[in-house]
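@channel sequence for tomorrow's demo:
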Amino acid sequence: MNVLLRTQAPRAFSLAKAAQANSRVSSALFHTTTSRWAQEDGKTIYGKDLTPSSPQLKKFSDRISVKLDDSELLLQSMTHKSFDHARVPTNERLEFVGEKVLNMYAAQHIFEKFADIDAQQYEDLLEQYIGKDALAQFGLDNGIEEVMRWKPASNQKDSKIGLNTVSAKAVSALVGAVFHAQGAKNAKEIIQKHLLAKNVELSQ
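structure tokens (generated this afternoon):
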């Protein structure tokens, strides 16, 4: 079982994780291909030129071993509601489904693998497995910023925060898309392979 015991305060642990996530987001923003940017009302729009047939989408899906026959559904899972004023299909509904599926299988995994833990430890493990930072880390580690369509909020001063949030939502939506198109078995396999196989730290 990939578990490390830790005694440090949860807040200190959270701050360390936040710093790591911030570093990953900064790197992702720096390396995002400039040809995919567009400007609208002085704000950068990401993924403006992406289409269902864009090679970036296939490369991304191959990288994470997700095979969706419907490339339009894949692109929809990567499309945040901020993109094009939601005039195209967005990932909101897929994200909602994916979030529930993630919670179900992560909760099952923790229940089966960790005996005699209290409620706080349970929540802590859920956060490590499928919290926003965990989902964003998985996405950014696999180049999700190259296939997302989104626009930072007009009142958002730090685009790094937006990228972290939008990346996590896109990962949830991707799980929702797999669940919708291929069923529970395939969705569970993806979650187990990419999110539940990591090392975690169990607080005492």
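heads up for whoever presents: Residues 159-182 form the longest helix (24 residues).
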